[in-house]
Amino acid sequence: MTANKKMLLPLCAALFLWNACSKDDDRTEEFSIIGVWSPSRKIVVANNGTTLSNTDYSACYKASTFDFRADNKMTSQIYDLNATLDCENLGSETVFYSYYHNAKKLVIDGKNVEVISRTNNELQFVDDYDDVDGDGIDEKIITVFVK
User: Fold this and answer.
1) Which of 32, 77, 90, 111 has its CA 20 to 30 A from that of 135?
2) Per CATH, is 35-146 categorized as 2.40.110.10?
3) What are the contacts of 25-29 at 24+ separation with CB within 8 A?
4) What are the residue boundaries of the structural domains of the chain, listed by start?
5) Closest to 146 measured CA to CA, from 61, 50, 29, 19
6) Could you report the per-residue pLDDT of 64-86, keeping only the tens digit for each?
7) Strands 139-146 and 35-45
């Protein structure tokens, strides 16, 4: 009986390690919106999918932060250039948000936001629709956030 117990313990340990490792390999890492994000650039995309522009935001606006917390509150601290091109603190605001991973949808203060792309360190979402090129058809204005 003692010899069987001695064989059983290493066998169980080996099976445990194999099982633990295989689950880690099969697990896909789900995106988490929780954390502090900053604006990086603006992308304008036409209806046919053509990128019309991909422009970095100003260093001033890039200093802005959007802190998505686990309690479903988002606090924004916004900086932007004023009329004399000085970087100005426009203040902070805290609002409620909901994030729906599978639907690729974000709801911020009751406004539905279409998520275009997401990774652990980049989030792209439709910020606005506007006829940028003057053809009478609104283009997608996509904001890119980075962690």
Assistant:
1) 111
2) no
3) 29/120
4) 35-146
5) 61
6) 999 999 999 999 999 999 999 99
7) antiparallel
